[in-house]
Amino acid sequence: VDGRVEPWLEKLNDSAIDVNRLETELSKSRKHQIHVGTETERRCNVMAKGFKRNIKASEPYFRTKARADAQKERAVNVMLEFNHACEAHLRAKEALQEAEARTRGQGCVNVFDPLLQAALSDANTQLLRAQSSKDAAEARHKLELEKADQLMMDADLLGRNILIARDIRNSRPYFQEKERSRKLIEECRKRSERVERELMNAKQGYSEALHSLNSISEQVHEERLRRKALKHSKSREKNHHYSRKHSSNSSGLCHKSILEDSVQTGTCQPGGIDDCLQPLGDLRVTRKDEAT
Q1: Residue 1 CA: distances (Å) to CA of 6, 22, 45, 216, 219
Q2: Three-class SS of the chain
Q3: 220, 26 in Cβ contact below 8 A?
Q4: What are 29-54's pLDDT values in tens digits?
Q5: What mean pLDDT is reported for the chain?
Q6: What sign results for the dihedral spanned by CA atoms 217, 219, 220, 222?
Q7: Is there a contact between 12 and 206 (Cβ–Cβ < 8 Å)?
Q8: Are the CB atoms for 41 and 185 separated by under 8 Å?
Q9: What local confidence, expressed as pLDDT, does residue 162 receive?
Q10: Backbone angles phi, psi at 108, to 5 degrees
Q11: What span, in angstroms and rounded, lies between the C-alpha atoms of 231 and 101?
């Protein structure tokens, strides 16, 4: 067995096991997601009984508040991006300072070093890119924060409306349950997507292992055909050599027989071997020559 087969065969078996496991897990995750969605919708419908008027009147407030909360979350994410951009800018600035220090140290010997100049140029380019990313992240953070503040102000303004204060109070449990259900369904969806990505990777590994095994099999088959053809060619050469040798031996035996007959009949003396090794036409003698 080819030594390359075993590791790929193990990967094929492991990938097949992972594919089966992840397919089962994905099916369960999707069923759980559907069950959660159905169950949360049922609970919300039960809670909405008797409070439909309150829910309708307070819906603008809770919708605005939900948008404000989502906007605040986006602002926090943009702030994290801004912090990363600041860190990258600081690292680029330090790298540029180090390159400038090395260049100043080189100046005392009055020798131009292209590597140092390239490092200095690269550090300067990285600093400019980091500065640009930092400015863009800062602008995005400022914009997202302003949107979040505006939505919070709108929600606060709606919440101060005494005409819907009672509606907000009575419908709050319903909207809280709805928000909790939304987050739970979102978690189920993300879990299903994660399992689906793992399943795709497992299938890709299985396909890669199968392709490699097929490739090895084709290479082994071609090698066998090559060896078989080489063996057949050597066998033909051997048979051809044997035939030529057999033909040469047969010719030698024929000459030897003619020589023995010539010696016995007296047509050739034992000392005249060279004269006897002539074509058969030259060895034919007549009775008249024998008498002579």
Answers
A1: 9, 32, 66, 11, 13
A2: CCCCHHHHHHHHHHHHHHHHHHHHHHHHHHHHHHHHHHHHHHHHHHHHCCCHHHHHHHHHHHHHHHHHHHHHHHHHHHHHHHHHHHHHHHHHHHHHHHHHHHHHHHHCCCCCCHHHHHHHHHHHHHHHHHHHHHHHHHHHHHHHHHHHHHHHHHHHHHHCCCCCHHHHHHHHHHHHHHHHHHHHHHHHHHHHHHHHHHHHHHHHHHHHHHHHHHHHHHHHHHHHHHHHHHHHHHHHHHHHHHHHHHHHHHHHHHHHHHHHHHHHHCCCCCCCHHHHCCCHHHHCCCHHHHHC
A3: no
A4: 999 989 998 998 898 888 888 888 88
A5: 80
A6: positive
A7: yes
A8: no
A9: 78
A10: -70, -20
A11: 71
> Does residue 95 or residue 203 have the better pLDDT?
203
Q: Are 79 and 128 in contact (CB under 8 A)?
A: no
Residue 142 near residue 81 (C-beta atoms within 8 A): no
Structure tokens at 252: 């030698």
pLDDT for 265-288, tens place per residue? Answer: 555 544 444 544 444 444 444 444
Q: Predicted confidence band at 241 (pLDDT cuts at 50, 70, 90)?
A: low
Question: In angstroms, how far is the first alpha carbon of the chain from the final one?
Answer: 81
Tokens coding 87: 């860190």
Taking each helix axis from N to C end, the angle separating 165-265 and 5-48, rounded to the nearest 10 degrees, works out to 160
Question: Tell me, what's the pLDDT at 49?
Answer: 84
**Six token digits for residue 112:** 């131009």
Q: Taking a C-beta distance cutoff of 8 angstroms, is the pair 209, 8 a contact?
A: yes
